[in-house]
Amino acid sequence: MSDWPILSAITLLPLIGALFILVIRGEDEIALRNMRWTALFTTVFTFVLSLILWSNFDPAAPGFQFEEKYSWFGLMTYHLGVDGLGLPFVLLTAFLMPGVIIASWAVEKRVKEYMIAFL
Q1: CB neighbour class for 11 (10 Å; exposed up to 12, middle 13-18, buried from 19)
Q2: CA distance 72 to 46
Q3: What is the SS3 assignment for 93?
Q4: Own/partner long-range contacts of 49-56 (Cβ < 8 Å, ≥24 apart)
Q5: Separation of alpha carbons 42 and 100, rounded Å
Q6: What dihedral do alpha carbons 100, 101, 103, 105 form, nearest 10°?
Q7: To the nearest whole number, what is the mean pLDDT of the chain?
Q8: Would you say residue 12 has pLDDT above 60?
Q9: Phi/psi at 59 (nearest 5 deg)?
Q10: Which pLDDT band holds residue 64 (cuts at 50, 70, 90)?
């Protein structure tokens, strides 16, 4: 499980969901419903991934876990990792987001922008 880039998936999944919402056309009820459901499914799946991260986390191990390090074009480095202090914040954020989407289900104006902003 440590070879799979779970932190990148947790980080980039909301961006992918936002891109899906961005390409949904129209302001009719079907389009608005699809935007809401896309945001909800994205946040629920992100929460499930964070639970998998938590279940595989070893609190006895010092330092960062699930580290990912990639070099981009030789100029930049993409480096992610989670430690015992950061893991609760990842879980809390991922836990709250589906509830926020559900609580804002009744929003009727600028739904696309609203859902993208939360993701």
Answers
A1: middle
A2: 25
A3: helix
A4: 49/6, 49/9, 49/10, 49/13, 49/94, 50/10, 50/90, 50/91, 50/94, 50/95, 51/91, 52/1, 52/6, 53/6, 53/7, 53/10, 53/82, 53/87, 53/90, 54/87, 54/91, 56/1, 56/2
A5: 13
A6: 160
A7: 93
A8: yes
A9: -65, -20
A10: very high
As a whole number of angstroms, the distance between CA 27 and CA 7 comes to: 34
What does the pLDDT look like over 70-119, one tens digit per residue?
Answer: 888 888 998 999 999 999 999 999 999 999 999 999 999 999 999 999 99
Cβ atoms of residues 57 and 10 within 8 Å: no
Instruction: Take residue 89 and report the two structure tokens written for it.
Output: 């914040």
- The two structure tokens encoding residue 19: 């891109």
Share of the chain above pLDDT 90, in %: 87
Under DSSP, the state recorded for 23 is H
